[in-house]
Amino acid sequence: MKKISLLLLSLFILSSCLNNDNNTSNHTFEYLSIDEAITPTSFTFGEKDTITVKYSLTNGCYSFDRMYYEYEDSTRIVAVIALLDLNENCTQDIRQEEYKFEVTATQREDYIFKFYKGRDADGESIFEEVVIPVN
Q1: What is the predicted pLDDT for the residue at 90?
Q2: Domain presence at residue 74
Q3: Is 17 helix (H, G, I), strand (E, B) or coil?
Q4: Which residues pair with 88 in a beta bridge?
Q5: Which of 37, 41, 34 lies closest to 110, judged by CA?
Q6: What stretches of the chain adopt beta strand conformation (E)?
Q7: Rounded to an integer, what distance in angstroms lies between the CA atom of residue 34 and that of residue 31?
Q8: Alpha carbon of 9 to those of 12, 18, 20: distances in Å?
Q9: Comparing C-alpha atoms, which of 102, 103, 108 is closest to residue 135?
Q10: CB-CB contact of 111 with 126 (8 Å)
Q11: Is residue 73 a part of any domain in this protein?
């Protein structure tokens, strides 16, 4: 009896792991170009400040997923990651949205922000660099 129960449990677990095409979502993630970055002229050491990025969703299949924010030393790389739903019939409306995030000045050196602007003809990433001094 234990062997039959174990066999049935194993079959149940195996069947739940199989790919069921009816329930799978067909989506991908893409980096979006930042249209505009609104930054403060300077930071004050130890205080928080807000940066706003504006980006465009190119059709109705795109939706904001998250911000990509990587830092190394005094450099910060910022990009928008969007979810692209490949199962939908997309509306062709372009929507500009914005995202605000806070930065606390924890270093006395100038901050170098690199905002993602897309790719060039060779497939290399293009960035707009903004230097923000710290008072």
Answers
A1: 83
A2: yes
A3: helix
A4: none
A5: 41
A6: 27-32, 34-38, 48-57, 62-72, 75-85, 95-104, 111-119, 125-132
A7: 9
A8: 5, 15, 19
A9: 108
A10: no
A11: yes
Number of domains comprising the chain: 1
**Spatial separation of the C-alpha atoms in residues 59 and 68, rounded to whole Å:** 21
Residue 1 lies in a domain: no
Pairing of strands 75-85, 111-119: parallel
Q: 78-108: per-residue pLDDT in tens?
A: 999 999 998 778 888 899 999 999 999 999 9
Beta-carbon contacts of residue 92 (< 8 Å; ≥ 6 apart):
59, 60
Both tokens of 66, joined, read 């998250």
Q: What is the pLDDT of residues 12-56, one digit of tens each?
A: 565 555 555 555 568 899 999 999 999 999 999 999 999 999 999
Q: Residue 50 is part of which domain span?
A: 25-132
Residues 6+ apart with CB under 8 A from 19: none
For the chain, what's the residue count? 135
The fraction of the chain above a pLDDT of 90, given in percent, is 72
Residue 8 tokens, joined: 């049935």
